[in-house]
Amino acid sequence: NRLWGQTGYHFLPAFLQVTREDYGAELAQVDFARNTEAARRTINTWVEDKTEKRIQDLIAPGVLDQATTLVLTNAIYFKGDWQRQFKAEATKEAPFLINPQEKVAVPMMHQRGDFGYGDAGDAQILELPYVGRDLSMFVLLPKRVDGLADLEQKFTLDNLNTWTSGLRRRNVEVYLPKFTMTSSFRLDRVLSAMGMPLAFSGEADFSGMNGRHDLFISAVIHKAFVDVNEEGTEAAAATAVVMERAAAVPENLVFRADHPFLLLIRDNRTGSILFLGRMANPKK
């Protein structure tokens, strides 16, 4: 975490203390007013460094301007090896059904082994633990090729906890595509629709940061990168908030992820979801 504040701008000491002690976010000063582009490059370079260069250009040209006062960045990088790795020689080209009428050829990893497995009615669930088992990837695979939308409708934290708590170690034949996912989102409208529209307007009250009512959020940008291969998973994500002044025995169980599915990486100690995504087309 890092705060990027306009050089010379006064933020309340209490605010800086909270961000430093509770979130580990120190304040770095940059000059948005005089050199917006240099400030943007400085922030992006920090994000690249924290994510092993997997997240580049988090803040695109034009997002910042001379009225920018504060940018809050959060970056996370994760690289984990499977507890039980796939053998590279077992990876073969196979079809992935984008929908019932369309398919693409993808490198499909394959192995048989004991994994956490469950049935959620309309979907299969598989747990792929990483070395140490503190973290796992969960793959939620609809039983129908076109069942992803229905699964997403049912995807809540309560349901997820119910589904994953019911997993049992089973001997499963696993087919999982190799893939790389990259995504970039502007979360402004999403957060506004979720119930915080005032934060993005001149009516926002962030006086706890500077003692005045002249700050509001102008942009929230999120980028993510996930790479899944035989050895394990590499993942990174970064978010920026920009503020401006107004103004067992072998069974016949097969888990074949050859059509759209959900995936998430979870910290098994805390239950925190570190990454969450959908794979609709490994070729994109």
How would the blueprint of this fold be written?
Blueprint: E1 2-6, H1 13-23, E2 26-30, H2 36-50, E3 68-81, E4 92-99, E5 102-119, E6 123-129, E7 135-142, H3 148-154, H4 157-165, E8 168-177, E9 179-186, H5 188-193, H6 207-210, E10 215-228, E11 232-245, E12 253-256, E13 261-267, E14 273-279
Parallel strand pairs: 1-2, 8-12
Antiparallel strand pairs: 1-3, 3-11, 4-5, 5-6, 5-8, 6-7, 7-13, 9-10, 10-11, 13-14
Describe this structure in words.
This protein is α+β, with helices and mostly antiparallel strands and 284 residues long. It starts with a strand and ends in a 5-residue tail after the last strand. It has 2 domains: 2-78 and 181-245, 2-Layer Sandwich (Antithrombin, Chain I, domain 2); 80-180 and 248-279, Alpha-1-antitrypsin, domain 1. The longest helix has 15 residues, at 36-50. The protein is elongated. Strands 4, 5, 6, 7, 8, 12, 13 and 14 form an 8-stranded mixed sheet that branches. Strand 13 (261-267) and strand 14 (273-279) form a beta hairpin. The protein is built from 6 helices and 14 strands. The chain has helices at 13-23, 36-50, 148-154, 157-165, 188-193, 207-210, and strands spanning 2-6, 26-30, 68-81, 92-99, 102-119, 123-129, 135-142, 168-177, 179-186, 215-228, 232-245, 253-256, 261-267, 273-279.
Average pLDDT, all residues: 90
Q: Could you name the CATH homologous superfamily of the largest domain?
A: Antithrombin, subunit I, domain 2
Q: What is the top-level CATH class of the largest domain? A: Alpha Beta
Model regions low in confidence, pLDDT < 50 over at least 5 residues: none
